[in-house]
Amino acid sequence: MLKGNLVVGQSGGPTAAINASLCGVIEGAMASGFDGKILGMVHGIEGLLKENFIDLGEIFADPADREKLVKTPSAYLGSCRKKLAKPEVDPTDYNAAFEVFKKHNIRYFLYIGGNDSMDTVYRLSEYAKKIDYDICIMGVPKTIDNDLNVTDHCPGYGSAAKFIATAIREMARDTRVYDMNSVLIVEIMGRNAGWLAAASALARGEGHPSPELIYLPEAPFKMDEFLEDVDALVKQKKVVIVAISEGIRDENGVYVCESTASGAVDVFGHKYLSGAGKVLENAVRDKLGYKARAVELNVFQRCAAHLASKTDLTESRAVGKAAAEAAISGMTGRMMAYVRESTNPYKLSVAPCDIAEAANIEKMVPREWLNERGNDVTEEFVAYARPLIEGESYPEYEDGLPVHIIRP
Ligand code: F6P
């Protein structure tokens, strides 16, 4: 075991389960007989560069606080959307990061995040080798988008999927209240991969027929076919619920929302997307004359801890713990991933994978998990996703509201 301190950070968009992974990292370090400090970087790598640390070992010494952390949504440590330049292009951040590592004797670095965050893990671990600095650097997967390569699914996805399916069921009850034709379009996050919108299919069953149509970025969106399908379904059923990914695009790869989006991009160069639902709402109203309403699930789907999946929280905590234990036992340059042993009965294990295989690669919904017309998902997808939303994990409530643990 290297003698020194451990630092953990959270990066990218928040989820309902990212704090469960943080708790897992803390508990993994505690369980490993590690005797250094367990530090948290505030706002990810940006906080590290500013030496903005808090002592998580001290703050979460009491197991009761760790239980609260697991059930608190978003990123306790704060997050960032910073991507490191390649060191051969600009070594500034690498030099600064390793100066901080040396100054604080940091020998373990754990980063909880998605594709771009795994790129940080990859680059830092390669740089450490290059300059011969002894440090164990491990990635912990996280993203509601479920688009990380190698891992069977991503921590945070199950809870977002559960929220989406629940919200669709409830909105479907609302929409069916009148005896009139109407179309509800539900816009769901997912820029390039449609895993989240696909999860709307989980709402079906037990007398719930919605959503009637599902559109993902993995199949080109054709406006004429969409209007045809909506029209036919309204004539048959009166009320139609449509689930779409924010990132649906036409055959030329142009986002449906581009007619309304500002074109602004984030620091990774990703376009800010929203408005596809509105485009479809207007099309249904103008071309078909039906009452139409678009709802954007937006940030609600990311941090709905009151509807978290117990499976997701349990797995997220376990993967964080396994990553910390692996780092402390000397592993570096890897991401701890989920391996599905079987779907029925559902059985999962965790195993390390090569970080280069996880960084920067977006895993899409397989085309064969969509039907031929590209307006629904297949039973294979449902069988894959169903176990991930199982189980409830209610937060503590006080004065009628959920209790969250907030960074001082
Ligand atoms: O973290 C992934 C994600 O939730 C995407 O689904 C979404 O497009 C994006 O984050 C939005 O990011 P931000 O909150 O930084 O605008």
Q: How is the biggest beta sheet arranged?
A: 7 strands, mixed
Flag low-confidence runs: none
Please give the share of residues in helix: 25-40%
In one word, what is the shape? Answer: globular
Output the structural class.
alpha/beta
Order of helices and strands: EHEHEHHHEHEHEHEHEHEHEEHHEE
CATH 2nd-level architecture of the largest domain: 3-Layer(aba) Sandwich
User: Bound small molecules, which ones?
Assistant: 6-O-phosphono-beta-D-fructofuranose
Q: Give the strand tally.
A: 13
Radius of gyration: 22 Å
Number of helices: 13
Task: Describe the protein's architecture and organization.
By secondary structure, the protein is an alpha/beta fold. It folds into two domains: 5-145 and 305-361, Rossmann fold (3-Layer(aba) Sandwich), CATH 3.40.50.450; 161-303, Rossmann fold. Helices cover 35% and strands 18% of the residues. It contains 13 helices and 13 strands. It has helices at residues 18-31, 44-49, 56-59, 63-70, 92-103, 115-131, 157-175, 195-198, 223-237, 276-288, 310-328, 355-358, 379-385, and strands at residues 5-10, 38-41, 53-55, 106-113, 136-141, 182-188, 213-215, 239-245, 291-296, 334-343, 346-354, 397-398, 401-402. It has a seven-stranded mixed sheet, sandwiched between helices. The chain has a four-stranded parallel sheet with strand order 7-8-6-9, with helices on both faces. α9 (223-237) links the parallel β7 and β8. The model has no long low-confidence stretch (mean pLDDT 95). The site of 6-O-phosphono-beta-D-fructofuranose (F6P) has 12 residues, from loops.
